[in-house]
Design goal:
alpha+beta; Pnp Oxidase, Chain A; UbiD C-terminal domain-like; 2 domains; 12 helices; 29% strand
């Protein structure tokens, strides 16, 4: 089992971790430094704090693959397998995260990222909740620090919201920070209600859990664990905040979490995930690739999925299929939208097109796509609240979605790409 700090130590040993020597101001400077060095992993200290801060740890797919011990091309396959074959983690009596406690959130160097932010934000926090019938649920939520004992969380009407409602509006939860990549990825997957994401994480890479005083199980090697209660009757302004699209999200009244206890490891490391940064995009977007893959694979043979960085790693995707009927491209478009409901544009290409190569994708569009017959437009669809161009709706943002079928017809040699003879350049 490899912990978050184990991986940070590996990066340092291999000379891949940039050490920031001067102390940094929590207000704007920390975020500015982390942004400037992307995608290089960085470590430093905030002023008046001895707690180490790291960022950009998983800012590339290569770093994710390095942690998981596989090639980049195998990440999706491993994630699909983990989703389809969850397994329960082993339980331990205690763990490093319970070594120490602190009295206030003020002791943690939480940065204010931009000058319009509503306050300091924790962006790497995962909420773990428990329901008597549904079991545990893990999900990412941005958290604005109100004071030393309170956080306000952005909570959409998804699983955590349902857990809170089922508990009568008050729900005991845990928040973990400094989690390993298997837990980070699993917690960002849109799994079915009642699926404990820690079981998906365990199949990705086995680990052990420890039980907190409120009965919630957490990975034993995380850096921080907050125990507290979310109360939907206590609301506070949350935002503005720069999110995945690198635009400001609006201010909303959101539920407050009262933090009752803060556990942490000896000499803890705070994972300062940069909002809208490359690490944020990897951790948000990549876990949607296997969910899209699973849906597309139900209607056509799916061979690849890429949530594109230019689409904010959230709103646009490229899907490749092994086309067997003329309708497969259109079917794949509909399935992709079902696999990631925030998706706004999807391009479907043939299996020989590299979904991660934008030049190849554009070539497929240029030579295999005709808007008059290969374009699918879906109006008045539920979209993403992160999309500033969408129309706000009562329960969800309203948007138009677009699918582009850039697969070649099954008949027609003139659609084939020319291939030159492969030679060994050293022979010439």
């Amino acid at each position: 089992m490899k912990s978050f700090r184990d991986f940070v130590a590996e990066l340092k040993k291999n000379g891949e971790l940039k050490q920031i020597e001067p102390s940094m101001k929590k207000y704007l400077e920390m975020a500015g430094v982390f942004s400037a060095f992307q995608p290089t992993p960085v470590m430093g200290h905030a002023e008046e704090s001895s707690i180490r801060c790291v960022s950009n740890i998983f800012a590339t797919k290569e770093k994710v693959a390095e942690y998981l011990g596989c090639e980049v091309s195998k990440i999706r396959e491993k994630m699909v397998n983990a989703i389809n074959n969850p397994s329960a983690p082993a339980k331990a009596n205690t763990g490093p995260v319970l070594e120490k406690t602190m009295s206030s959130l003020d002791e943690i160097p939480v940065p204010t990222h931009t000058d319009k932010d509503g306050g300091p934000y924790i962006c790497s926090g995962i909420v773990i909740a428990k329901d008597p019938e549904l079991g545990q649920n893990c999900s990412f939520h941005r958290m604005m620090v109100i004071d030393g004992e309170r956080l306000v969380l952005r909570i959409l009407e998804r699983h955590l919201h349902q857990f809170i409602e089922r508990a009568g509006g008050r729900l005991d939860v845990a928040v973990i920070i400094g989690a390993p990549i298997n837990v980070l990825l699993a917690s960002a997957i849109s799994s079915k209600l009642g699926q404990n994401e820690l079981e998906i994480a365990n199949t990705l890479m086995p680990f052990e859990t420890v039980e907190l005083m409120n009965g919630i199980e957490i990975p034993k090697d995380v850096e921080f664990a907050f125990v507290g209660t979310i109360d939907s009757s206590e609301l506070a302004d949350e935002g503005p905040f720069v999110d995945l699209t690198n635009t400001y999200d609006i201010v909303r009244k959101q539920p407050v979490m009262q933090v009752k206890k803060i556990y942490h490891r000896e000499n803890p490391i705070f994972h300062a995930l940069l909002p809208g940064g490359m690490e944020h995009k990897i951790l948000m977007g990549m876990p949607r690739e296997p969910t899209i893959f699973n849906e597309v694979n139900k209607v056509a043979e799916c061979t690849g999925v890429n949530i594109t960085p230019g689409g904010c790693s959230w709103l646009h995707a490229v899907v490749s299929i092994n086309k067997k009927s003329e309708e497969d491209g259109k079917k794949a478009i509909e399935a992709a939208f079902a696999g990631h409901k925030s998706l706004k544009k999807v391009i479907v290409v043939d299996s020989e097109i590299d979904v991660n190569n934008p030049d190849e994708v554009e070539w497929a569009l240029a030579t295999r796509f005709q808007a008059s017959k290969d374009l699918v437009v879906k109006e008045n669809e539920h979209g993403s609240s992160l999309d500033p161009s969408a129309e706000p709706g009562e329960k969800a943002s309203i948007t138009a979605k677009m699918g582009l079928d850039a697969t070649k017809p099954l008949e027609g040699e003139h659609f084939e790409r020319v291939k030159f003879l492969e030679v060994n350049k050293e022979d010439y």
